[in-house]
Q: What sequence folds into this?
C-alpha cells in the first residue's frame, strides 16, 4: 500500500445496534427480508397507519414523471414505488407511456411483488432484477429517473450505492430518496421513541412472527445519517441541487437532487 492509497474502510459496520463484520452485513439484511417478505406490505400498512402510501406518492411526484421515461427503483422490494410510477404515467395500460425497473438484493421480495401484481391483473408491470445497489447492472446514463425508498439504510456501502445511482442516471435525470430520518418536532420525539421500541417489534411479532426483524428496523433508523448529513453525502458523489423536506415531522425525509 502506498501513502496515496485511500484508507481501508473499517472492518466493522452497524447492523442495527449490533456491530458486524462488513462482509457479513448484506447476508444479515437478506435474512431479515427473507423472513418477512410474505407479510412485508401488510406490516408497512399497519406500522405507518397507511402513511407509507402517501409518502411514496409524494416521492413519485418529486421525481417529476414525464411520458415515455424510465424509472429505476433501487432496493425496490415488492415494487410499490415502481407500480405507482407506472400508474401515474398510464403505463400499466400502455407500456409505451413509461417503464420501470426494480432492483433488489432479495429474490423473495421480488417474487412476492411479482405474484401480487399478477393477482391484481397487472401484466405490464415493472421489470424486476436481483442485484445489489452497490453494483447496479446498467450502463452509464441509462435511466431518466432513479429512486430508493426505505432502502439506503439497509445498504452496507451507502456512498458506493449513491455513486452508482448517480452513474446510471442520464444528465438531467432526477433522483429521490425516501428514508426514515430524525424527528424535528420536540413533542413528537418521545412518543415516536416509545412507539418505535415497543409497538413496532410487538406488531412485527404478531404479524410476521419476527420481532427481531422489526427491532433491526427501528435500530437501523437510529444509525442512519440525519437529514443534513445525507444531503452532504449526496453532494459528495456528484448530485446537484440537493434538497430535503421532512414528512410527518421528520419521521421520514425526502431528499431530491439532479444529475446535471
Ligand atoms: C424496507 S425494504 C423497502 C422496499 C421498498 N422500497 C418499499 O419502500 O416498500 C428494503 C429493501 O432493500 C433491499 N436491500 C437491502 N440491501 C440492499 C442492497 N444492498 N442492494 C439492493 N437492495 C437491498 C431489501 O431486500 C428490501 O427489499
A:
Amino acid at each position: 500500500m502506498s501513502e496515496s492509497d485511500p484508507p481501508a474502510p473499517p472492518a466493522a459496520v452497524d447492523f442495527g445496534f449490533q456491530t458486524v463484520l462488513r462482509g457479513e452485513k448484506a447476508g444479515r439484511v437478506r435474512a431479515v427480508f427473507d423472513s418477512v417478505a410474505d407479510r412485508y406490505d401488510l406490516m408497512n400498512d399497519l406500522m405507518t397507519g397507511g402513511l407509507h402510501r402517501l409518502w411514496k406518492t409524494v416521492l413519485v411526484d418529486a421525481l417529476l414523471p414525464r411520458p415515455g421515461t424510465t424509472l429505476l427503483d433501487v432496493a425496490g422490494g415488492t415494487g410499490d414505488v415502481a407500480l405507482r410510477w407506472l400508474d401515474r404515467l398510464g403505463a400499466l395500460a400502455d407500456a409505451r407511456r413509461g417503464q420501470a425497473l426494480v432492483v433488489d438484493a432479495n429474490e423473495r421480495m421480488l417474487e412476492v411483488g411479482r405474484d401480487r401484481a399478477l393477482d391484481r391483473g397487472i401484466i405490464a408491470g415493472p421489470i424486476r432484477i436481483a442485484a445489489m445497489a452497490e453494483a447496479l447492472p446498467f450502463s452509464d446514463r441509462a435511466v431518466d429517473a432513479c429512486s430508493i425508498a426505505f432502502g439506503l439504510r439497509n445498504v452496507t456501502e451507502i456512498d458506493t450505492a449513491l455513486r452508482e445511482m448517480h452513474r446510471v442516471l442520464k444528465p438531467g435525470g432526477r433522483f429521490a430518496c425516501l428514508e426514515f430520518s430524525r424527528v424535528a418536532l420536540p413533542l413528537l420525539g418521545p412518543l415516536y421513541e416509545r412507539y418505535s421500541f415497543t409497538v413496532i417489534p410487538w406488531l412485527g411479532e404478531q404479524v410476521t412472527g419476527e420481532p427481531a426483524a422489526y427491532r433491526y428496523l427501528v435500530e437501523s433508523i437510529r444509525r442512519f445519517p440525519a437529514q443534513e448529513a445525507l444531503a452532504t453525502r449526496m453532494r459528495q458523489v456528484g448530485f446537484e441541487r440537493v434538497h430535503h423536506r421532512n414528512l410527518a415531522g421528520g419521521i421520514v425525509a425526502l431528499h431530491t437532487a439532479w444529475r446535471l
